[in-house]
């Protein structure tokens, strides 16, 4: 089973130049909490100084005592791992909470990991998901990656079963018993979650107007995503049927323009979309884990694009 990650902050402050260890030490001594945090991080990673977890804990504690949220989270990691201090999950979680309460994303994510693993607290998937989601919402990539993993642990029994296939439960073998799957060269695996991807032969799908379909699986072979392309004139009928079965969470259906409806059921989301300039609609079913992985993938691609553009300037 894939594990969630606890992490030290990578860069805790932004400056116009890379501060030397001597400058960090001077700043920390003079009461600059952020300098203490970064000095602790330097010792924890052996960055510019010999690795020394005792000093890492010392400087992280000094930062935390001055109210620096990142220092508290980093000190929590050291307690969780027993690096430079005696391992103490209760103390670690106390520090994560202190950091998270100050709005520090990584502290929230790290506390979520504790609940996911049951380290120092009673194991609680719901609480873990709540905390890593908070970390993700606050802008921490590790929190978003952890959210995908946490979502996969939640029960799938209440997930929808489009075309007779249950999200989060049906396997590749199950799907092959019902439908002929078609592999296209270069599309054997999808970039979002690394799982297998197939086009699906739609001749056995008893939905009027369906033209094509795609299924995507998690790396463990369970169904994560179902896409159906259907004649656009079926939008109203599809909307009525979905509204009768699932909870409507979003609706944009103007007289003229793009039409969109979203539905929630179990640990999955359904999206019905009909573009104004087109003759077909998209009906998509996906687990929450897949939707989150998709968002993470898009965000990372945007970050790569920005970095690539910046390197050309």
Describe what is shown at a glance.
By secondary structure, the protein is an alpha+beta fold.
pLDDT average, as an integer? 88
Poorly predicted parts: 10-18
Strands of the biggest beta sheet: in what spatial order?
A: 1-2-3-4-8-7-6-5
Largest sheet: 8 strands, antiparallel
Query: Considering DSSP H and I runs of 4 or more, what fraction of the residues is helical?
Result: 40-55%
The total beta strand count reads: 8
Classification by helices and strands: alpha+beta
Give the overall shape, derived from the CA principal axes. elongated
List the helices and strands and how they pair.
Blueprint: H1 21-29, H2 33-45, H3 53-65, H4 69-81, H5 89-101, H6 105-117, H7 125-137, H8 141-153, H9 172-178, E1 181-182, E2 197-200, E3 210-217, E4 223-231, H10 235-245, E5 247-252, E6 259-265, E7 268-274, E8 280-287, H11 288-311
Antiparallel strand pairs: 1-2, 2-3, 3-4, 4-8, 5-6, 6-7, 7-8
Helix pairs in contact: 1-2, 2-3, 3-4, 4-5, 5-6, 6-7, 6-8, 7-8, 8-11
């Amino acid at each position: 089973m894939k594990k969630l990650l606890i992490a030290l902050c990578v860069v805790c402050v932004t400056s116009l130049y890379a501060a030397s260890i001597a400058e960090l030490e001077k700043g920390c001594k003079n009461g600059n909490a952020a300098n203490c945090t970064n000095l602790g991080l330097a010792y924890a990673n052996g960055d510019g100084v010999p690795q020394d977890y005792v000093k890492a804990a010392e400087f992280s504690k000094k930062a935390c005592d001055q109210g620096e949220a990142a220092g508290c989270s980093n000190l929590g990691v050291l307690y969780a791992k027993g690096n430079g201090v005696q391992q103490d999950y209760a103390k670690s979680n106390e520090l994560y909470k202190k950091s998270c309460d100050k709005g520090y994303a990584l502290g929230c994510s790290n506390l979520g990991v504790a609940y996911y693993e049951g380290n120092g607290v009673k194991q609680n998937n719901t609480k873990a998901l709540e905390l890593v989601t908070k970390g993700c919402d606050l802008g921490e990539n590790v929190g978003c990656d952890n959210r995908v993993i946490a979502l996969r642990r939640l029960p799938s029994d209440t997930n929808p079963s489009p075309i007779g296939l249950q999200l989060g439960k049906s396997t590749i073998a199950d799907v092959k018993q019902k439908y002929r799957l078609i592999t296209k060269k270069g599309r054997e695996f999808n970039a979002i979650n690394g799982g297998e991807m197939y086009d699906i032969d739609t001749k056995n799908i008893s939905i009027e107007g369906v033209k094509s379909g795609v299924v995507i699986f998690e790396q463990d072979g369970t169904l994560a995503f179902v896409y159906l392309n259907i004649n656009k004139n079926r939008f109203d009928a599809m909307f009525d049927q979905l509204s009768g079965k699932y909870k409507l969470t979003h609706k944009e259906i103007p007289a003229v323009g793009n039409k969109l409806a979203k539905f929630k059921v179990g640990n999955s989301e359904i999206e019905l979309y009909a573009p104004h300039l087109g003759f077909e609609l998209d009906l998509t079913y996906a687990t929450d884990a897949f939707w989150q992985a998709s968002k993470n993938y898009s965000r990372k691609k945007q970050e790569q694009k920005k970095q690539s553009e910046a390197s050309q300037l």
